[in-house]
Write a structure and sequence with these properties.
Rossmann fold, 5 strands, alpha/beta
């Protein structure tokens, strides 16, 4: 009997990647043989960082996690239906992080829709560590824009990139 490779997909806009995202990824790699981090092109969100910048920042963080865990991590941009993208990367399951009850309500609806599209791909929820439950990319960007300290919310390279964006 051949055991199917466990490929997880962790999608997001990562505008920018935060320590909350990193925490979920570090925990997700414990469950997979390979992890795909899908960087979504979401024109409705009007991202601060370009797609290339988001992929570059995310890839830099993933290289460290991959080396530490021994699990291959691919960072792949996508602009398609999530389930179609999951099929394209051969994902067995989608990893989602939950911070609060409001996240659950949205994610619960998404799981129902995704199951209708492809019931072979499961969704796995990981609760955010209490240290990161309050972190949201949009709040981090607002704090950075107003000159506040963001070093405890994002990796050092991301903090530097945010500060550079708002110094212009």
């Amino acid at each position: 009997m051949t055991v199917k490779k466990r490929i997880g997909l962790y999608p997001g806009t990562f505008d920018p990647i935060t320590l909350g995202h990193v925490d979920i990824i570090e925990r997700a790699v414990k469950m997979v043989d390979e992890l795909v981090v899908g960087v979504a092109i979401n024109r409705d969100k009007a991202p601060l960082f370009s797609l290339d910048e988001r992929v570059r920042m995310t890839s830099a963080e993933m290289a460290t996690i991959s080396k530490k865990s021994g699990v291959p991590i691919r960072v792949v941009p996508f602009e398609t239906l999530l389930m179609k993208f999951a099929e394209e990367v051969n994902a067995n399951f989608i990893v989602r992080g939950l911070r609060a009850v409001s996240d659950f309500e949205y994610e619960f609806q998404m799981v129902g829709m995704n199951q209708k599209l492809n019931d072979d791909i499961e969704t796995v929820f990981l609760m955010a560590d209490v240290r990161y439950q309050f972190i949201a990319s949009r709040l981090v960007k607002e704090i950075a824009r107003l000159g506040g300290a963001i070093d405890s919310f994002v990796p050092p390279a991301v903090a530097k990139a945010l500060k550079a964006k708002f110094q212009k």
